[in-house]
Amino acid sequence: MQNNPPKNPMEKTAVDLSHITDHDIYFFKEGNHFKLYDKLGSHMITVNGVKGVHFAVWAPNAERVSVIGEFNGWDPLSTPLKIRDDWSGVWEAFVPGLDKGTLYKYQIDSKYHMYKVQKGDPYAFMWEVSPKTASVVWDLDYEWNDSEWMRTRRERNSLNSPISIYEVHLGSWRRVPEEGNRYLNYRELAHRLAEYVKETGFTHVELLPVMEHPFYGSWGYQSVGYFAPTSRFGTPQDFMYMIDHLHQNGIGVILDWVPSHFPTDEYALGYFDGTHLYEHADERKGFHPDWNSYIFNYGRNEVRSFLISSALFWLEKYHIDGIRVDAVASMLYLDYSREGGDWIPNEFGGRENIEAIDFLRRLNEAVYHEHPDVQTYAEESTAWPMVSKPTYLGGLGFGMKWNMGWMHDTLKYFSRDPIFRKYSHSQLTFSIWYAFFENFVLPLSHDEVVHGKGSLLGKMPGDEWQRFANLRLLYGYMFGHPGKKLLFMGAEFAQVKEWAHEESLEWHVLQYGFHGGMKKWVSDLNAMYRSEAALYENDFDNDGFEWIDFHDWEESVISYIRKGRTAKETFLVVCNLTPVYRQGYRVGVPEGGFWKEALNSDASEYGGSGKGNMGGVGAERIRAHKREFSLNLTLPPLSTLFFKHNG
Q1: Contact 170, 183 (CB under 8 A)
Q2: Residue 6 pLDDT greater than 50, yes or no
């Protein structure tokens, strides 16, 4: 039977420790304590002049909790924790003499089922290198040198700024074959990644989950350490160094973050104190059939405090510039990937997960309240409305949303033989009809180059020349299309094989002309995108886009205008989606004067045939596409052309 909470949240409890106050407990139980990482877990403190470690863990259904480690021979009877009170469910103790680097776990004896288990610390700042599973006492001391970045990052992260994201899996970006194919560590990655991202022109890197995870093959999506970067690549300070160095080189850092599920490993969060503490007890709400993992109980106040504290932790302690929330659709729908009677309707009889919706809104409100200069990104694969609209308008409150519809339709279109593309023309043009419903990111992500799907290059039809031309065309179309950009590592130089997490990328292919040309094409696209406001300023506003012609399905050509906030900032984008070389192709334009050919994917330096418009075309007063002026263009085969109006 639980006791009533203290009437005054500031009132002292029986535990005479200053590290956690009743104020903390009150807001934790209320679901509104978002800095629990400063309170729960292990912290090196001094009590009455004695140095040691304060341990605190939430286990309300435990009969007994002890901290065990090498320091006490892993003896569950040696170092018991004391419960503050039955209402809080928090067990704590100060253990003198312990210091940084101490290995530990919690021995939990449940009140129920004779259940006894050794658990890692949910709030640990560091874990042993997998497959070992102990938590590690650690600090987060670090002297940051990214003040200039932090001062200006609001502008770099804003919705009307250029955002081109390079998605990276740290364990397979580069390896060291001479040393047993080992991973690069965080500090090695810092320098090599910063240099490469600057060279290729991306504005941000997005890291597949770095939170500690037992199974490397999960790519980080089966996390156990919600407050710890994986120790596979180094210490927390090493990870801070990597972020710091990227920031000093003008590169933002986004982290994949996974509140949608967690693994069933015994030492992790599941069945933590002999009850379903973090997850739902009923498997119809608490277990993912797709991933064989647990689902958080979003309606429990303490779980909300835990998860939102985790999100804010990375922004606060690691200077992260944004979080991408994985698998949002699986959180929003109670029947996600479930059959008939395998799910429980909400209180109104519907399929919407009301508790998860409330959690996501509170998450975004907390993030933007504490860090208004960052962004949150949703990977949401359905037509759920207003994902990236403010909560006060009824939205979920994310800053941006991955455009999964664009990605699926675009890749399906480009995988077709160009002979048949005219019969699927609307598959390419349909995305504009909903392009401004959300703040979209256009993702060509890791999910599209695994599990037998092949590489992006492998999806392209035709002979070798045509496959590379098709991929350059795809990237050109993508960079001209409204929305921020995302490419998974290896795509920028047309990796041949699909991604394998146990191997390095195929860096050796850069010695071959087509691959080097692809890398230069992506680099030049990024450079143009970052320097031309017309291509990014109005990404989420229909004033920034205007069709010239989307009806020419017979010849598979599309043309459109991108506009910035001033009349002088105007780009024409023309895509020839077949290998037919077209001369004398007339395109209407909004203004007379000279239109400079800013980029041409068929240029010989990119591996193309070298055909084009000799640097630009002057508009003629010949009516076309309901416009007074038009251009007489040469359209190279399988090409994207960018023309800038010199007003």
Answers
A1: yes
A2: no
Query: Is 352 part of any domain?
Result: no
**Boundary residue ending a domain (105, 136, 167):** 136
Among 136, 159, 174, give the residue marking a domain's end. Answer: 136
pLDDT tens string 281-340? 999 999 999 899 999 999 999 999 999 999 999 999 999 999 999 999 999 999 999 988
- The structural domain count of the chain equals 2
Contact in structure between 507 and 175 (CB atoms under 8 Å): no
Name residues whose C-beta falls within 8 Å of residue 73's C-beta, 6 or more positions apart in sequence. Answer: none
Task: Name residue 248's amino acid.
Answer: Q
Dihedral sign of CA atoms 560, 564, 565, 569 in order: negative
- Please, is 207 exposed, middle or buried when counting C-beta atoms within 10 Å of its C-beta (0-12, 13-18, 19+)? buried
Range of the domain at 626: 542-645
CA distance 169 to 564: 34
Helix (H), strand (E) at residue 275: none
Integer CA distances (angstroms), 578 to 206, 466, 552, in order:
33, 10, 12
3-state helix, strand, coil in the chain (%, to 5): 30, 25, 45
Q: Which of 326, 355, 492, 597 is catalytic?
A: 326
**Bond preceding residue 131 cis, omega within 30 of 0:** yes
Give the Å distances, CA to CA, from 449 to 381, 418, 432: 17, 22, 25
Report how far residue 194's alpha carbon sits from residue 178's, in angstroms, rounded to the nearest whole number.
23
Q: What is the CATH number of the domain that holds 572?
A: 2.60.40.1180
Task: Examine residue 103 and state whether it is found in any structural domain, yes or no.
Answer: yes
Supply 320's token pair.
């992260």
Residue 232 CA neighbour count, 13 Å, CB half: 22
Please pick, among 24, 206, 379, 380, the residue that the annotation labels catalytic: 379
Nearest to 645 by CA among 583, 576, 562: 562
- CB-CB contact of 82 with 92 (8 Å): yes
Residues 31-81 have pLDDT tens digits of: 999 999 999 999 999 999 999 999 999 999 999 999 999 999 999 999 999
pLDDT at 86 over 90: no
Q: Is 30 a catalytic residue?
A: no
Residue in 288, 300, 278, 284 with CA at minimum distance from that of residue 358: 300
Q: Is 503 a catalytic residue?
A: no
Beta carbons within 10 angstroms of residue 581's beta carbon: 15
DSSP for 386-432? TTTS-GGGTS---SEEE-HHHHHHHHHHHTS-GGGGGGGHHHHHGGG
9 belongs to a structural domain: no
- Cβ burial of 381 (10 Å; 0-12, 13-18, 19+) is middle
Which residues does residue 539 pair with via DSSP β-bridges, in sequence order? none
Amino acid identity, position 567: A
Instruction: Assess if residue 420 is contained within a domain.
Output: no
Beta-carbon contacts of 487 under 8 Å, excluding residues fewer than 6 positions away, are: 164, 165, 166, 167, 202, 444, 475, 522
**Structure-token match 């064989």, residue found:** 292
Q: How far is CA 306 from CA 30, 40, 42, 221, 594, in A?
A: 12, 10, 15, 18, 58
